[in-house]
């Protein structure tokens, strides 16, 4: 956490599934990178690149969550999926605007993304986390030591993850 | 004998079983067959999507449709490969798969090959060759029949699979669009 961070991760955001938490941390980190890029005027191209990576990673992350919901017969699946789709549509519209019009990524937008993520984790994702436990999958709540080690020492050709 | 590329000389491919591998000719596509099926419908659908993009790329290059078209399909293939690998690796970490580090190394190997081609295309110092496509196809055949099958066995015994013995069918629209850009 530096003074310029937009979003400070804390364990209060945990949904009790480490794989999901770790992905949320990546999203938080990308949001913070975007914040710095705008704050320090790194230029349009840089902030656009971070936004695109954020969008791509979000898509991967949603795919995992939705897959787990489907596999565990989560009753809230449809509503949750709809929330994901609505966000992705908004991001897509933004990307389109950045392509076609002379608009820039604003602090307002950053705060919108941050607030969306905070609320989504605290309400929707935590509800799914509770369902995951109830479905008898508590043993998968945490990574194994081996996985932890692999994640620490592996090089990341996709820069994040 | 056909000259081998650096790609097909790698230790990983040499350790694998080469049975049943067909080299691509211009008319020879990478078709999905039931023996490529693994434990989850979702992964099967992703593999099918990748094969489809691969075939499009192959057609585009062999029919000389132009660099821009081929590059566009190639980028879609790269993006969906990345997305697919990220998804698979998530499921491996989640279900405590002991083969995860080795499997991840195989993914990294392919991504490195792909990134090398991307760099060449960016610098205009190379193009997507039929040799590259052949190696790519061989890699996938070995990988799905070997490593993905191994993970499949693990997954089938996992609690996650037991809790999902009646896996909900994936909506057809989702099946058709997961890899597309939005």
CATH-derived topology of chain A? Four Helix Bundle (Hemerythrin (Met), subunit A)
**Which CATH class of the domain at 39-164 in chain B?**
Mainly Alpha
- Report the average pLDDT across residues of chain B: 79
Q: Look at the structure and name the CATH superfamily of chain A.
A: Hemerythrin-like
Shape of chain A: globular
Number of domains of chain A: 1
CATH fold naming of the domain at 39-164 in chain B: Four Helix Bundle (Hemerythrin (Met), subunit A)
Query: Unreliable segments of chain B (pLDDT under 50, ≥5 consecutive)?
Result: 1-27, 165-169, 178-182
H and E order of chain B: HHHHHHH
Q: In this structure, how is the largest beta sheet of chain B organized?
A: none
Assign a percent range to the helix content of chain B.
55-70%
Q: What's the mean pLDDT score of chain A?
A: 91
Regarding quaternary structure, how should these chains be classified? heterodimer
Q: What portion of residues of chain A is helical?
A: over 70%
Distance between the termini of chain B: 44 Å
CATH superfamily of the domain at 39-164 in chain B: Hemerythrin-like
* Whole-angstrom Rg of chain A: 17 Å
Kindly name the structural category of chain A.
mainly alpha
Strand content of chain B: under 5%
Main sheet of chain A, how many strands, which sense, barrel?
A: none
């Amino acid at each position: 956490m530096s003074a310029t961070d937009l979003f400070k991760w804390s364990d209060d955001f945990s949904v009790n599934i480490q794989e999901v938490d770790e992905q949320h941390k990546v999203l938080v980190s990308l949001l913070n990178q975007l914040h710095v890029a705008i704050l320090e005027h790194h230029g349009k191209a840089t902030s656009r690149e971070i936004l695109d990576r954020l969008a791509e990673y979000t898509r991967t992350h949603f795919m995992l969550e939705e897959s787990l919901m489907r596999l565990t017969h989560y009753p809230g699946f449809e509503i949750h999926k709809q929330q994901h789709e609505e966000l992705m549509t908004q991001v897509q519209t933004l990307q389109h605007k950045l392509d076609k019009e002379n608009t820039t990524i604003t602090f307002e937008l950053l705060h919108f993304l941050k607030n969306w993520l905070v609320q989504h984790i605290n309400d929707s994702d935590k509800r799914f986390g509770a369902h995951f436990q109830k479905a008898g999958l508590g043993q998968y709540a945490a990574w194994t030591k081996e996985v932890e080690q692999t994640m620490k020492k592996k090089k990341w050709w996709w820069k994040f993850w | 004998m056909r000259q081998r590329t650096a790609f097909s000389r790698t230790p990983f491919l040499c350790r694998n079983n080469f049975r049943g591998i067909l080299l691509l000719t211009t008319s020879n596509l990478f078709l999905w067959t039931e023996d490529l099926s693994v434990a989850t419908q979702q992964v099967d659908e992703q593999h099918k999507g990748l094969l489809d993009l691969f075939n499009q790329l192959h057609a585009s290059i062999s029919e000389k449709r132009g660099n821009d078209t081929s590059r566009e399909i190639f980028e879609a293939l790269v993006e969906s490969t990345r997305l697919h690998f990220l998804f698979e690796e998530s499921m491996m970490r989640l279900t405590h798969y002991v083969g995860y580090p080795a499997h991840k190394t195989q993914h990294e190997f392919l991504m490195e090959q792909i990134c090398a081609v991307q760099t060449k295309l960016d610098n205009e110092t190379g193009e997507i060759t039929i040799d590259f496509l052949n190696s790519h196809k061989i890699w996938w055949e070995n990988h799905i029949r070997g490593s993905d099958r191994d993970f499949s066995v693990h997954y089938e015994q996992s609690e996650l699979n037991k809790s999902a013995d009646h896996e909900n069918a994936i909506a057809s629209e989702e099946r058709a669009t997961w890899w597309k850009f939005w």
